[in-house]
């Protein structure tokens, strides 16, 4: 079978037979790949814990008819070590993995930006460099942007009239002017819109200045925007630690 090498983040795994697992991987060059990891559930497995969710690994894979097969695995970063023992980090991390799995739909289609964004988010989450809620909100917005659903937080999402604008509507694509505002649009505080824009662009000095009320309002708007454009809520989202 032809061999290829790639870096990957393990999104999820499930059992196959008595000793094997199927791992769903987000690779740097080949997008989403499902691959068999043979013998990984045996205590003598040479792969050990290197192919658990949250792991960043360098892999050699053999191309199979339906599923590829992992033949070599070297650890790049074991992000799970800093995530799984902290409830807020773990629940946030599961949303990050599920989001990537959801947004990268086609297998074997390049998704380099998604891979790099997820690797960066897991690194920051595992070190505790930033609060889990901020990591998640920024990740959701930027993942949607990469997938072609970038919300507007400046100009009107419908007519392009320069902002700032007060109304926010997920179906319209973000903030909208008075003329374009659909019924039942949200009316977030101006500071919330500023915070949302900072999360989308990675302006952390501005994002970190937001007070708790602003962050909570932004989180609700991001969840509504994501759910609208993905039709179904993420399964892992209700388990988030809302006290963070």
Q: How would you summarize the topology of this molecule?
A:
Blueprint (H helix, E strand, L loop, with lengths): L2 E14 L3 E8 L4 E6 L17 E8 L5 E11 L8 H17 L8 H16 L4 H15 L20 E3 L4 E3 L13 H12 L2 H5 L3 H19 L14
Parallel strand pairs: 3-5
Antiparallel strand pairs: 1-2, 1-4, 2-3, 4-5, 6-7
InterPro entries: ARFGAP/RecO, DNA_rep/recomb_RecO_N, NA-bd_OB-fold, RecO, RecO_C
Keywords: DNA damage, DNA recombination, DNA repair
Family: Belongs to the RecO family.
Structural classification: alpha+beta
Largest sheet: spatial strand order: 1-2-3-5-4
CATH homologous superfamily classification of the largest domain: Recombination protein O, C-terminal domain
Uncertain segments are none
Mean pLDDT: 92
Report helical residue fraction. 25-40%
Number of helices: 6
The CATH class of the largest domain turns out to be Mainly Alpha
Count of separate structural domains: 2
> How many β-strands, per DSSP?
7
List descriptors.
single chain, 244 residues, alpha+beta, OB fold (Dihydrolipoamide Acetyltransferase, E2P), de novo design (two linked rop proteins), 2 domains, two-stranded antiparallel sheet, 34% helix, 22% strand, RecO_C, DNA_rep/recomb_RecO_N, DNA damage, DNA recombination, DNA repair
Can you describe this structure?
The chain has 244 residues and is α+β, with helices and mostly antiparallel strands. It folds into 2 domains: 3-79, Nucleic acid-binding proteins (OB fold (Dihydrolipoamide Acetyltransferase, E2P), Beta Barrel); 81-232, Recombination protein O, C-terminal domain (de novo design (two linked rop proteins)). It is 34% helix and 22% strand. It has 6 helices and 7 strands. It has helices at 87-103, 112-127, 132-146, 190-201, 204-208, 212-230, and strands spanning 3-16, 20-27, 32-37, 55-62, 68-78, 167-169, 174-176. The protein has a 5-stranded mixed beta barrel. The longest helix has 19 residues, at 212-230. It is elongated and about 65 Å long.
């Amino acid at each position: 079978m032809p061999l290829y090498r790639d870096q990957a983040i393990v999104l999820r795994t499930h059992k196959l037979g008595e000793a094997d697992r199927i791992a769903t991987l987000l690779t740097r060059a080949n997008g989403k790949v499902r691959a068999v990891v043979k013998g990984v559930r045996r205590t003598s497995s040479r792969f050990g814990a290197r192919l658990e969710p949250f792991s960043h690994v360098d892999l050699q894979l053999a191309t199979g008819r339906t599923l590829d097969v992992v033949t070599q695995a070297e650890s790049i970063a074991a992000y799970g070590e800093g995530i799984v023992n902290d409830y807020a980090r773990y629940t946030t991390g599961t949303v990050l993995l599920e989001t990537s799995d959801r947004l990268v739909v086609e297998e074997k289609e390049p998704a380099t930006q998604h891979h790099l964004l997820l690797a960066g988010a897991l690194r920051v989450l595992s070190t505790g460099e930033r609060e889990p809620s901020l990591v998640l909100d920024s990740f959701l917005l930027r993942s949607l942007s990469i997938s072609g659903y970038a919300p507007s937080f400046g100009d009107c999402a419908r007519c392009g009239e320069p902002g700032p604008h007060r109304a926010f509507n997920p179906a319209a694509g973000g903030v909208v002017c008075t003329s374009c505002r659909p019924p039942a649009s949200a009316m977030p505080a101006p500071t919330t819109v500023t915070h949302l824009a900072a999360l989308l662009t990675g302006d952390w000095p501005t994002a970190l200045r937001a007070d708790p009320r602003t962050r909570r309002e932004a989180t609700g708007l991001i969840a509504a925007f994501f759910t609208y454009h993905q039709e179904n809520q993420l399964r892992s989202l209700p388990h988030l630690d809302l006290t963070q």
